[in-house]
């Protein structure tokens, strides 16, 4: 990676703990400026393979390893790791209230940028620790009673499935699980099972925007429209869409949305988001009451996310990773990931014709996940051998799940398919 000499000097002094660098409290803004990769000052003029190679070089993944597991956990660009390390080092040396006071402003900046990123107001967003926590905060924070029904998709993540079933046992409401029958070809085929499950008692419909197991993408906007036309709330689990695709939650029309920053956003570990429309804040119970909480608070972050002392250096890096996405271009990122998954699907189809796809081939019904099965080859074995013999990290979710991101190139995917051809023979 190309560090400017200014940046190198700053990091060296800071890591060495030199007096010059440490007599003043470190401002996160200075760390951000010093760790920022210069080439990102402008949006790219030409987006070609050479550009994506430059992007790949921003990540610390060594040449003998390949990460194609974005659906689970992404590496971060090196400058984000540097920023967190520099900020954490400074915090270790000065944990005074004075030094830490800057983190509140950083959190506000992160909330504003997150809100802009998903097209809502900053009062409607809270920073949690991950999607798991965001989903559970909604499960525990919304009141339903005996006689009420909620509809969940059978492909929901357990944090948005099992969690509802547990709550229903305690509170006596009913959870209806909807399956999408095989053979679907149209958007209406994906909507119909939800439509058929609705009754006058339905209070909420909740689904993963993109399934983490099959990679199937649901028509979120149409489902939210259907629900709101019947006065039903919607919770969209966006763990597999946030950071991958351009999102405007106002247009999507969901009431609640949850996601993590360490997946497709390639951001700091252990930060998540919880969006709630402002009009629902009054009916949302907090699961945790932290210092500073009060009943008439007007923001999601202050009402739901006051979790005591937080890991401020990671949250402080959120603005920088959001800027990274904006500079490259959110549509450019989505287009690139879609291009890579299409390239992967076509290569597998051509070179391993016996493979069958669990993820739909159509871009309209899928995102950045490719789930595939190879007859006679258990996915758990393929998953292990890909890593042990080829250094390729993917996932086994009943089938083999491959989820590339902008740090992968055509040449990575060629290597991956070549390895799969060998392992499939
Ligand atoms: C759809 C979905 N929801 C929730 C989660 C939980 O995410 P986290 O582990 O970041 O809390 C995942 C993780 O893969 C997911 O795919």
CATH topology of the largest domain: Aspartate Aminotransferase, domain 2
Bound molecules: pyridoxal-5'-phosphate
- Per DSSP, what share of the residues sits in E-state strands of 2 or more residues? 5-15%
At the fourth CATH level, what is the homologous superfamily of the largest domain?
Type I PLP-dependent aspartate aminotransferase-like (Major domain)
Number of helices: 18
From the 3D coordinates, which CATH architecture of the largest domain would you assign? 3-Layer(aba) Sandwich
Number of strands: 13
* CATH class annotation of the largest domain: Alpha Beta
Total of domains = 2
What features would you highlight for this structure?
12% strand, Aspartate Aminotransferase, domain 2, Aspartate Aminotransferase, domain 1, single chain, seven-stranded mixed sheet, 2 domains, four-stranded antiparallel sheet, alpha/beta, binds pyridoxal-5'-phosphate, 425 residues
Would you give an account of this structure?
This protein has 425 residues and is α/β, with parallel strands linked by helices. The chain has two domains: 107-323, 3-Layer(aba) Sandwich (Aspartate Aminotransferase, domain 2), CATH 3.40.640; 330-424, Alpha-Beta Complex (Aspartate Aminotransferase, domain 1). It has helices at residues 5-16, 19-22, 28-35, 49-56, 78-93, 97-100, 102-118, 131-141, 162-171, 187-197, 220-229, 249-252, 300-304, 312-315, 318-328, 330-351, 379-390, 410-424, and strands spanning 66-67, 125-128, 149-153, 174-178, 202-208, 233-237, 256-260, 272-276, 356-357, 370-373, 392-393, 395-396, 400-402. Strands 2-8-7-6-5-3-4 form a seven-stranded mixed beta sheet, with helices on both faces. Strands 9-10-13-12 form a four-stranded antiparallel beta sheet, with helices on one face. A two-stranded parallel ribbon has the order 1-11. Strand 6 (233-237), helix 12 and strand 7 (256-260) form a beta-alpha-beta unit. Helix 3 (28-35) packs antiparallel against helix 5. The longest helix is centred in the C-terminal third of the chain and has 22 residues, at 330-351. Pyridoxal-5'-phosphate (PLP) is lined by residues 72, 130-132, 157, 159, 208, 212, 237, 239-240, 260. Pyridoxal-5'-phosphate binds at residues 72, 130-132, 157, 159, 208, 212, 237, 239-240, 260. It holds the Pfam family Aminotran_5. GO terms for molecular function: transaminase activity. It comes from Spirosoma arboris. This is Aminotransferase class V-fold PLP-dependent enzyme.
């Amino acid at each position: 990676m190309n560090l400017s000499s200014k940046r190198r000097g700053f990091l060296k002094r800071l890591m060495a703990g030199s007096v010059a660098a440490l007599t003043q409290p470190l401002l996160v803004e200075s760390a951000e400026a010093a760790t920022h990769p210069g080439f990102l000052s402008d949006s790219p003029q030409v987006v070609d393979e050479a550009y994506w190679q430059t992007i790949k070089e921003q990540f610390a993944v060594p040449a003998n390893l390949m990460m194609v597991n974005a659906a689970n956990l992404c590496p971060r660009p090196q400058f984000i790791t540097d920023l967190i390390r520099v900020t954490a080092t400074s915090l270790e040396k000065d944990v005074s209230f004075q030094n830490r006071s800057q983190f509140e402003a950083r959190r506000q900046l992160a909330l504003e940028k997150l809100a802009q990123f998903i097209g809502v107001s900053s009062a409607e967003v809270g920073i949690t620790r991950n999607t798991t926590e965001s989903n559970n905060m909604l499960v525990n924070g919304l009141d339903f009673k005996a006689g009420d029904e909620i509809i969940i998709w059978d492909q929901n993540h357990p944090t948005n499935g099992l969690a509802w079933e547990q709550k229903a046992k305690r509170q006596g409401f009913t959870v209806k699980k909807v399956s999408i029958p095989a053979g679907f070809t149209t958007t209406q085929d994906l909507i119909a099972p939800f439509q058929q499950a609705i009754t006058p008692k339905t209070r909420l419909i909740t689904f993963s925007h993109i399934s983490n197991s099959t990679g199937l993408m649901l028509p979120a906007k149409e489902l939210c429209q259907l629900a709101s036309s019947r006065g039903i709330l919607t919770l969209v689990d966006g763990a597999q869409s946030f950071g991958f695709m351009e999102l405007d939650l106002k247009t999507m029309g969901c009431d609640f949305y949850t996601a993590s920053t360490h997946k497709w956003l390639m951001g700091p570990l252990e930060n998540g988001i919880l969006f709630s429309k402002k009009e629902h804040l009054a009916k949302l119970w907090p699961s945790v009451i932290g210092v500073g909480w009060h009943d008439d608070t007007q923001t999601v972050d202050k009402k739901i996310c006051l979790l005591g002392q937080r890991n401020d250096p990671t949250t402080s890096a959120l603005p920088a990773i959001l800027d990274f996405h904006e500079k490259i271009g959110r549509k450019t990122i989505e287009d690139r990931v879609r291009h890579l998954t299409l390239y992967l699907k076509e290569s597998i189809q051509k070179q391993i014709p016996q493979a069958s796809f669990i993820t739909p081939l159509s871009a309209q019904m899928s995102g950045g996940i490719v789930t595939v099965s190879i007859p006679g080859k258990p996915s758990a074995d393929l998953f292990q051998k890909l890593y042990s013999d080829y250094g390729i990290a993917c996932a086994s979710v009943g089938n083999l799940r491959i989820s590339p991101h902008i740090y992968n190139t055509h040449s990575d995917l060629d290597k991956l398919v070549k390895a799969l051809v060998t392992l499939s023979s």
